[in-house]
Amino acid sequence: MRRKFMLFVCVICTVFALMITVYGIHINDPLYYNGPYVDLIAQERVSAPSPTGLTVVTVDTKTGYALGTTMSTRYGPFLLLERKICIVDFMFEEKPMKLRFENNKLTGCRHYSTNMTLDEQLQTANQWETDPEVLRAVLSDYAAQVNALL
Predict the structure, then answer these.
(1) How confident is the model at residue 27 (pLDDT cuts 50, 70, 90)?
(2) Does the CA dihedral 50-54-60-62 come out positive or negative?
(3) Is 23 inside any structural domain?
């Protein structure tokens, strides 16, 4: 009975250690973002009057602001681990840019044109800037714009 109890305690400690490692790994990372995800370009459309009088935007119920695309999935032992991806748009240096966050860490960004054809969009869909220096500058600007909005 004592062996089973010790085995149970070891398993629980291992699971907690794994969770702390996975979820706590980005805390000191300069690309870690723990603020609200706001699609700033969609928010501009909401704030500006539409010529047709109709604007459809997904809104976050907690913040009341436009929400970016969010996807999440559970995986791992007992489905304890979660991978959350959030994609938001904002203006960076006068150009529209998409940001991709994975588990609250900025993992990529890319400029895009609103005049692109569907073929052009599909060709550039997997081309993300991943240079940490560029991502730090972009994240700093995004966080400042979100903070100014709030």
Answers:
(1) low
(2) positive
(3) no
